[in-house]
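Students often ask what a holo structure prediction actually looks like on paper. The answer is less mysterious than it sounds. You provide the chain, you provide the ligand, and the output is a string of discrete structure tokens encoding the 3D arrangement of the protein together with zinc ion.
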Amino acid sequence: MEQNNRFKSPQDPEVGRFLKSLGIHPLPTRLPYPVPNQVNAYLIEGDGLLLIDTGLNDDETWETLEKDFARLGHTFAEVRRIYLTHGHLDHYGVARKIQDLSGAKVFIHPLDRAKVLAPTPEKQKAEKTLYQNYLVGAGFPEEEVDNLLQISEAIRHHAIPLERLEMVDDGEIIKWGQVTLKVMNFPGHTRGMINFYEPRHRILFSGDHILPDISPNPLPDLDAALISPAPEPKNGEAGPDPFPRFQSLIQYLVSIQRVLALDLDLVLPGHGEPIVNHRQLLLDLGRFYQDRQGKIMSILGSKELSPMDISRELFPGVSAFEVILAISEVVGNAEVLEEQGKIIREIKDRKIHYRKK
Ligand SMILES: [Zn+2]
Ligand SMILES: [Zn+2]
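The corresponding structure tokens follow.
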């Protein structure tokens, strides 16, 4: 365990000086959401420019990026490569526009590729069915599902779909300017989440894998189910399991252990300020999830509840927009409890129920 962090705080002027000396420039842009309300791209100077993520597709983001590029004495035309940490629209939204201007290659992990492509009508239909089944199976009122899906449909324009894409995988090495980045796949937030580790300078570009103030939601990653079908049923369940088990939080917690094994002074996240004390943050995060699982256990008591029932008690009054996040938080934590043998998951009438073992 490190006793002293190299940097005192995210505001430590040494952080900015250190990054600048390596040709690394954070490019924060505002997001039109309550939380998180901003997203970070990172520009790395070398033989041309490399970008990690881009921000989403709106006028304000574009103007901010233009100003920041100009301030640094660069133009979009100099961008050679864009690496996407994962396929969420606030991270890849404007990559296509920069690619069209510069001819840059855009890289993504194969497991997140489908997220950034233009949805075909068949894919849209399959995805809609998946979400409907997932939400109804989780106990969400059937008559409200369409409304909810329209909300996520409404923010689709925050990203321009990509067509020309290169794949990048775990273990690949990228030499760029003064840095040598090792690509690491950390499944959890999405299956194809990649981070970039700079061992010599002890930096990790963490995307949404590690964030300073919010726990990265273990999203159900439903479109991944379009690529690989649901696993075989277990726990003696009869017939095929109608609900894929994503185990995103279980995978996430494994990925966190892999980060703890790295020597790091600085974590550069997809949202928020640089992280100078990642070990403490990850220990706190572990405790946060344990606490949440404890709450789920006490909500369950001697009852048999759906993910939606639990989510109503755990997060009273969440907005419609946040319901999917609230449900996935419950399902993710319940999967951990199930794996630990503390609760049992049963499917009755095509709906999920949990009870204590
Ligand atoms: Zn994300
Ligand atoms: Zn994000």
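The chain has twelve helices and 13 strands.
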